[in-house]
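hey so i finally got around to running the thing on that chain from the lab meeting. sorry it took forever, my laptop kept dying and i had to restart like 3 times. anyway pasting the input first so we r on the same page abt which one it is
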Amino acid sequence: MYKLLIILLLLIICNLLPGGVIYDKPGNTIIVSDYSQEMPCTLSTLYRLARMNGWKNITRDESGKIFTVDANLQIGKADGSSTFFQVGDKEESGETLIVQGNVIISPNWFSVKNSNRGTNRLTLGFPDAAKIKCSLKIANGHTVYSNCIPRKGKRPQRGIKGGQLHIYNSEITCINGGRKNHLNNLYLYGDQVILKNSAVSYFGTVAAYGLNRRTGKVDNTIFRNGKYAMISSGWNARNCTFENLTLGIVDMGGPIRSTLTNCIFKDTPANVRLHCGKSWVFAIDCDFGKGKFDIRSKHRNKDKKNGRKFYPYLVSNRHLIVKVVDKNGNPISGALISIDGKSKSNIPGVIEKRRGRTGKDGMTPGKGNRTALILTEFLIQANDSAKASRTEFTYDLKVSASGFNPVTKDDLKLTISWDVIEITLIE
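ok and heres what got predicted. didnt touch it at all, straight out
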């Protein structure tokens, strides 16, 4: 009777405990499943369960911050269940997960019929705790599989939905990253991928394979020490840095459609390569450094039905501010600003005309205001020749205000974002 009560008590305790962790020995994979968003599996939880089960392939260093998984790590299962895994401690920064294998964020299902059930998510850091930073370090030749499962000698098997990756104020990199040590493609097929205030480094080929504009949110993230940050499909990037790459953006395997806002290219020989006919990139307030552009129409550039040709292009737009003062330097509010381009283009995204008015400070709206003045700096578009055409836009600026003589400034050219152009009006 006593033994029966103990067994019953153990069964009750097991049922009350959230989630489960198993070790798939043939696949050398730690599989974490059934942890809720309210009570996610943490590195401390994973370590305690490993000790309970006598597994020696999950260890923790003396500081208590660095955890090593000497196996593949899989978050969730493709059975419609949900699993949430959290790296990072809100009480203390610096938690690190080292994985001597692949990190797999499983899709919830592989069939469309059941695709609306379940979420499997790996989160690094916290969206509301900028000071808490953590790291995911993966062994050379391995990588992250989000919403897909690796297959030997083949491309990953993609799921429909469910596999998600959220990274805040954190880093994904290779253990001892260097020329010979780097990650494989990071497969970010997840139906929700967030990279915010973070970094991805030492990737052998692509930093964000499979990421697209619909599923990805990328803000203030550094992509450094690798081959390509962005390839086919494309995603939108804000406040990002592309550093020490072979080529920042390339339409390999299909057209790219991407908007870059306030991004910087550093130590990257080639910034953008567009060869597919339907590729385009809009750049807003970006710094391209000394990197080059390779924009040519070589692939998928003709409509099979009507023979219409398509040519890839890149548009660079910049914001500016016009300041209007009188002869004594006093601001003039309500001044009318008229800007007209000397070059014309029917390319979407090219802005060749703007109107605006100055505020009480005598200036047109500044950063953060949707009505701020913005114009096209240059357009690079492929054509039938081997070399793309580049159009540098110049503008005529006219300023007028009641009680003052109008002033016109010819051949205005944009080279710096948010440049302040001061105009003095005389009565």
